[in-house]
Amino acid sequence: MRAHSIRTDQGPEIDLDSPDLLKRARYELSRHNPVLLRVTGSAMRPSIEDGDVVTVEPISGQSVHSGDIVLYQSLRDTALIHRVVKLETRPSGRFIVTRGDASTSLDVPVPVHHVMGRVKEISREGEKIEVIAQRRGLLGILRALFAWLGLAKS
Description:
The protein is mostly beta strands. The chain has two helices and ten strands; from the N terminus they run ββαββββββββα. Strands 1, 2, 3, 4, 5, 6, 7, 8, 9 and 10 form a ten-stranded antiparallel beta sheet that branches.
């Protein structure tokens, strides 16, 4: 998913066409301010739909985990919101491998320091949707089932 616009409590909404979108998002998140982004695209369906507004919270590279939905700077200098599939340690450092939930192919790995924040909340047509990291294995399946049934702890 591409970030379509950005809004913070401190300023106006910024459109995707704005050349300073990444700079502004990185600045606000580095100051520990969450940002609100209106996203476009279908790569994260059904978790995030075209036009949803996501709240991105600041996160350090050390706090990134598999299953998180993160805002990061791609190698092409675009803002993307995809799910972390795995973390890799290479001689040149730590990298994240991401993929859109609706995609079948993995994205190009990027250094973990390209991660700017983690999606904390999704707003769809005024309704707040809690973000649950998708974890693999039986425990992850059970957590997702309990959440879907409304039996998960708040």
